[in-house]
Design goal:
Belongs to the glutathione peroxidase family. The protein has six helices and seven strands, in the order αββαβαβαβαββα. The chain is an alpha/beta fold and 183 residues long. The chain has a single domain, classed as 3-Layer(aba) Sandwich (Glutaredoxin), CATH 3.40.30.
C-alpha cells in the first residue's frame, strides 16, 4: 500500500519532465560541450523560452574582433532575457587547433561572458543538430560570425552575414523583435 503512494510523486515528476521536453522547440534539442569545461550545455534547459543569438565563431578569422561587439550586445540585452551562444567551428579553416587556444581568444583576448561551446561542425552533413535546424529555417552559415536571432519559440527571426556588425541597427531590431515575442 505504501509503495502505491510513492508512485504518484514519481509519475508526476516523469510527466512533468515529458511536458517540458514537449515544450522544447526542435532547434534546441540536444546538448553541446561547453568550452573548456567538463559539462554539457543542455540547449533546451538553458535556452528554451528565451530570445537567443547564435553565432558561429573562429579564433583566427578577420571578423574575430566582433566578439567585442557581441559581448556588448549581450550585456546590453541580457537583463531583457537575451541569451547568446557562440559556437566555434573550423569549417572555414580558421579555428584554433585546440580548445585551450580557442578559450584564450574568447575569454582572455575579448572578455566573452556569454556561453561558448567546444568547436563544432556548422555546415553540411556533419553539422550539429542546432546548425542543421538553423540552416533549415534560414540558411547555413556562409562564413564565420554568421549570426542567427531566434525568438522564444525557437524560430529564426533573422540571420545576418559576417559583414553585419553587432551594432548594426537591423541586427538590434531583430533582437528587439525576438525579445518582444511571446513565451
Amino acid at each position: 500500500m505504501r509503495t502505491r503512494w510513492l508512485w504518484i510523486p514519481l509519475l508526476t515528476l516523469v510527466s512533468g519532465a515529458a511536458a517540458v521536453a514537449g515544450q522544447c522547440p526542435d532547434l534546441l534539442q540536444g546538448e553541446l560541450p561547453k568550452l573548456r569545461a567538463k559539462e554539457q550545455i543542455n540547449l533546451c534547459e538553458q535556452f528554451a523560452g528565451k530570445p537567443l543569438v547564435v553565432v558561429n565563431t573562429a579564433s583566427y578569422c578577420g571578423f574575430a574582433p566582433q566578439f567585442e561587439g557581441l559581448e556588448a550586445v549581450y550585456k546590453a540585452y541580457h537583463e531583457q532575457g537575451l541569451e547568446m551562444l557562440g559556437v566555434p567551428s573550423n569549417d572555414f579553416k580558421q579555428e584554433a587547433a585546440n580548445s585551450v587556444e580557442t578559450a584564450k581568444v574568447c575569454y582572455a583576448n575579448y572578455g566573452v561572458t556569454f556561453t561558448m561551446t567546444e568547436p563544432q561542425a556548422v555546415r553540411g552533413d556533419d553539422a550539429t543538430h542546432l546548425f542543421r535546424e538553423l540552416a533549415r529555417q534560414s540558411s547555413a552559415p556562409k562564413w564565420n560570425f554568421y549570426k542567427y536571432v531566434v525568438d522564444r519559440q525557437g524560430h529564426v527571426v533573422a540571420s545576418f552575414s559576417s559583414l553585419t556588425k553587432p551594432d548594426d541597427p537591423q541586427f538590434k531590431a531583430a533582437i528587439d523583435k525576438a525579445i518582444a515575442s511571446p513565451p
